[in-house]
Amino acid sequence: MDKTVKAEGRSIDSAAPRETQSAAKSASRGRAKPPATTRLGVAKTYKLYINGKFPRTESGRYFTVVDSKGNIAANMCRASRKDFREAVLAARSAFSGWADASAYLRGQILYRVAEMLEARAEQFVTELKLMGVDKRTASREVTAAIDCLVYYAGWTDKYQQVFSAVNPVASSHFNFSILEPVGVVSVLTGQNSALLGFVEAIAPVIAGGNTAIALAPEQNPLCAISFAEVLHSSDVPAGVINILSGYRKELAEQFSSHMDINAIIANSNDASEIKIIQEQAANNIKRVIIRTKPIAPDPYQIIDVQETKTTWHPIGG
Amino acid sequence: MNKAAAPHTLNFDTGWAYSPAPESTDHVHIEDQYKLFIGGKFVAPKSGKYFDTINPANEKVLARVAQAGAADVDRAVTAARDAYDTDWSKMKPAERGKYIYRIARIIQERAREFAVIESMDGGKPIREARDVDIPLAAAHFFYYAGWADKLDYAFPCRTPQSLGVAGQIIPWNFPLLMAAWKIAPALACGNTVVLKPAETTPLTALKLAEVIEAADLPPGVVNILTGDGSTGAAIVNHEDVNKIAFTGSTNVGRIIQRALAGTDKRYTLELGGKAANIIFADAAIDQAVEGVVNAIFFNQGHVCCAGSRLLVQESVADEVIAKLKERMQTLIVGDPLDKNTDIGAINSAEQLERINAYLDLGLEEGAEMFQCGGKNPDKGYWCQPTLFTNVAQSHRIVREEIFGPVLAIQTFRTLDEAVAKANNTQYGLSGGIWTDKGAKIFSVGAKMRAGVIWANTFNKFDPTSPFGGYKESGVGREGGMHGLSAYLDLH
Amino acid sequence: MAQMAKTVVMIAPKPDQAPRVDQVGVDERVARFRSRSIKKASKVEALNLVLSQIDLTTLEGQDTPGKVRQLCQKAMRLHDSLPDIPHVAAVCVYPMMVAEAKKALGASGIKVASVATSFPSGMAPSEVKLEEIKLAVGLGADEIDMVISRGKFLEGKYQEVFDEIVACKEACGDAHLKVILETGELGTLDRVRYASLLAMQAGADFIKTSTGKIQPAATMPVTLVMLQAIRDYYYDTGRMVGMKPAGGISKAKLAIHYLVMLRETLGEAWMSPDWFRFGASSLANDVLMQLQKQQTGIYQSEDYFSKD
Question: Which domain holds residue B323?
């Protein structure tokens, strides 16, 4: 696996941005020192989200996210391949339960996620602002993310009707094709949208009964990890969505090579990254969905990670 | 009731045997040598090379066919691109459809000739070529012809666009049928085609070239290149191909998927399988036994979706195995052109060697082998239908695709155990369920991770029915409305 | 079997003791039999076997002793220009005609089969049916073709149907008992399968599809299911039961495909008139025409073959 990367003359590790294990710029975690009369703020620790729990990375590594003013916004977990492996285990064991959940229930849960996000909208606006997004744009992004969840919540019990088929075979058989989730899906979300892009990438995956391991946008991971807290309070079963933060160059190969991943979705414009993903995916004939630009929610993104299952049965007395 | 416990057996070595009933070949014309079909003409290969295609039932050379090299591939792709730009993508969809209808009709008219050549070149029984391969191939063209001017109705809120030039590489187990599976939807969706038939079975594809000529398709819309793996690789790697459709082994599929990494080429892969056929105690046992026979011995087991594993519920295992063994005694192995032959010749010496290696391996692994002990013809490549019992999930004959008439039988006690064993494989192409209980069909069918579920039947195919696998059995679907999306850009 | 009935209460098998049958699967298997191409020597051999397995039948209200005598003549002398052909297995008539047939057939070796038990409906009290059997046997019938009480069967009174067959078997004495299921009235192959089991367990020597008075009569799918029932019964008990499809088999080609089905389902042991019969009236002539054609190479006309 490493061979591919080295053949291109670069090592994944050396290419990783802002190696920060040696020294953090500031011990104050980016908050301005408060005046003596006001209360000292309590900063949130951002951790991984695996199997419905919030562990730190097993590696003990971290990386620093810097806000728009150059202050340290957070020390993020720099997830390792072992964290990813744990996430895949969680996603695999959650798969059959989630895939077998009724479409109605999946819709209810996605709608519940939307409700929880709405309730915490302020928090996400604040996080986006911290990263330099203006208030109006930030609140538009949050509401769009909520609406995206509502949109896919509505699709859960409809895409099957739109995209299934009864096939008029010539022999004396009843023949129908339905959609089933492809399985465990790894998701490398785009960098340019901290919340909306992340939600748009994973919502159609789980709406269709898959389980997912998603990598938070590397330079802008706060919202994605906070979104895990929304999921956690929304009846989403443990393991259905697992969220890691870390270095994309370090993890992209893992996301695409793991033999127990059935499909990979990557929002990417990076030709060399795309090539690596596609090559590694061939290990187990993964389905590869590359999205080079953001696309508005639509049911075809659910179908991208569905398998068609066709069943035959005789018609007779 | 455990029927096999009774000592009573039947004797199928009857005094009354069927006299030879060979299909006549006098209406069939095979040239001594075939060139490449490029740009609407048969042209000599730039490579200058030819190779023999033989009849695996008697090892006689049927014809010499051209070996397309990289320069020939380039010429064919250029012809396909020109045809795409000047004719095919500009044509009214309804007219495109009418060309495809013509192909369907001519195949129907020449059906017997195709059946005979298919049997001679590939070794399959004439009965199957005649009753399955050729009619289904014609039906496939007929089905997709009708889609040509209706594509807008297939994908809500999308405007489907053709892709361009499709490179298509097909296997030797159903040569004409696989060509139809590839060409028909590609043409209906407005693409042009460069198709490579398998090295050991090129003749019906070349005959199809004659049909395409007779149907008066614009030159270059369909190009047919004979050759080996290197020809296939040249198609896969050609820069001006927009889409690759491949049917074959998972290993080659993996190589292709890797080769296409970093390109914009779309691909569909229809790969290997190791399907489990699950018989529950409440099944219609006699029909289930027949289903197992069709599942593994159809086309000498050279079927990617073959039911090569049998999982039978313990309480009926003895009965099922006993009946299976008796049924196997009535299977006729021999001359593929004889209308009574059930099991024809193995497709090639190479494939026979592979199958025999697995038979040895099965014995080495400690499995118990059963064959009826029929005598093979002196010439040609033959394998008697074979059962292995006393096998475990860890045995290679249970895990790997043998692609021959070899069945591995295991037993189970509970539904969950059956499903777990069925799914414990890298493949996911097909699966069989035999039970009289409807509710069980739906629950087991839903749990089986495979693209085609045959419930109380097996190995059924239809142009309207999507076919394709989960996991390492491939990517995408062929057949039905679902088969269109492989040849369209929907964004 | 009959003696056991006197001392032990015999319990009919329950419907769920018969395996399920999938009709489409049966049809597909039959299609495979029908795709067998039987040519040359194997065809001649088959045609001769078919002839030897025919129960030449007349079961009309207008039957007369004269007609029965003619039929017996035909049974013994099928066609003069074909000297080496076998005679048919039996002549099948109403009880009133048994004596006439017996006399006409003499020592030819051809059996006399008599329908009984208020054929074809079976709508008579059991005592009447048993009397009829005894009468036919008394007049010299070698074989009795009884009908089951379909009404009772469809009502679910399986034990009564079973008991009646047991009693009929006893009444037959040394005569062979063929039990007609009248499959055209049973409705499903599952019922055919179960009725076959019921009849065999009750002591049937043969099971038979039809009276010929109800459509559909014999079909290959129905016959296949009955053959499979015979095979399973043989596996279980070691007792061979014979099979007789009747009605609707009038062409040699179809009859040969029945033989293909027989061969590939039950094998060598059943390939004889002892274990397989065709109940037919016009089949013999078509077989004769085919045999003549095989000998001469020329296609034949019905006008050259006697119709009796």
Answer: 273-455
Cα–Cα dist C195/C181, whole Å:
7
Report how many domains make up chain B. Answer: 2
Cα C169 to Cα C176: distance, rounded to the nearest angstrom: 8
Q: Is B425 inside any structural domain?
A: yes
Summarize pLDDT for B287-299 with one digit per residue, the tens. 999 999 999 999 9
C-alpha distance from B430 to closest chain A C-alpha (Å):
9
A164 touches chain B (CB under 8 A): no
Domain ranges in chain C are 57-246
Q: β-strands C176-180, C143-147: how paired?
A: parallel
In this complex, which of A168, A271, A282 lies closest to B258 when CB atoms are compared?
A282
Domain extents for chain A?
47-314
Tens of pLDDT along B160-207?
999 999 999 999 999 999 999 999 999 999 999 999 999 999 999 999
Instruction: Write down the pLDDT at residue B14.
Output: 81
B291 located within any domain: yes
Closest Cβ opposite residue A167 in set B258, B269, B464: B464
**Is C23 close to A173, i.e. CB distance below 8 A?**
no
Which residues of C are annotated as catalytic?
Answer: 145, 208, 244
Residues B227 and B351 in one domain: no
- On whether both B296 and B388 belong to a single domain, the answer is yes
Measure the CA–CA gap between B25 and B132, rounded to whole angstroms.
19
Pairing of strands A211-215, B406-412: unpaired
Q: Can you give the pLDDT at residue B134?
A: 98
Average pLDDT, rounded, for chain A: 90
Q: Do B15 and C268 touch (CB under 8 A)?
A: yes
Residue B150 belongs to some domain of the structure: yes
DSSP one-letter code for B87: I
Contact in structure between B292 and B324 (CB atoms under 8 Å): yes
Which residues of chain C have a Cβ shorter than 8 Å from any chain A Cβ?
22-25, 27, 187-189
pLDDT at C211: 97
| CA pair distance C96, C114, nearest whole angstrom | 9
CB contact under 8 A, B11 and C268: yes
Cβ-based neighbour number of residue A107 at 10 Å = 20
3-state secondary structure chain C: CHHHHHHCCCCCCCHHHCCCCCHHHHHHHHHHHHCCCCCHHHHHHHHHHHHHCEEEECCCCCCCHHHHHHHHHHHHCCCCCCCCCCCCCEEEECHHHHHHHHHHHCCCCCEEEEECCCCCCCCCCHHHHHHHHHHHHHCCCCEEEEECCHHHHHHCCHHHHHHHHHHHHHHHCCCEEEEECCHHHCCCHHHHHHHHHHHHHCCCCEEECCCCCCCCCCCHHHHHHHHHHHHHHHHHHCCCCEEECECCCCCHHHHHHHHHHHHHHCCHHHCCCCCECEEECCHHHHHHHHHHHHHHCCCCCHHHCCCC
d(CA B331, CA B128): 14
In this complex, which of C24, C188, C189 lies closest to A314 when CB atoms are compared? Answer: C24
> Of C215, C284, C285, nearest to C247 (Cα)?
C215
Give the CATH number, domain containing residue B107: 3.40.605.10
- Same domain as B367, residue B220: no
The domain defined by A47-314 carries CATH number 3.30.1240.10? no
Please give the Cα distance from A289 to B123 (Å, whole number): 40
Considering the domain architecture, whether residues B243 and B301 belong to the same structural domain is answered as no
CATH of domain C57-246: 3.20.20.70
Side-chain half-sphere of C154: how many Cα atoms within 13 Å?
Answer: 11
Q: Does residue B350 have an active-site annotation?
A: no
Report chain B residues touching chain C, CB-CB < 8 A. 1, 3-4, 6-8, 10-21, 127, 131, 282-287, 290-291, 322, 330, 339-340, 436, 456-457
B270: annotated active-site residue: yes
Q: Is residue B19 part of a domain?
A: no
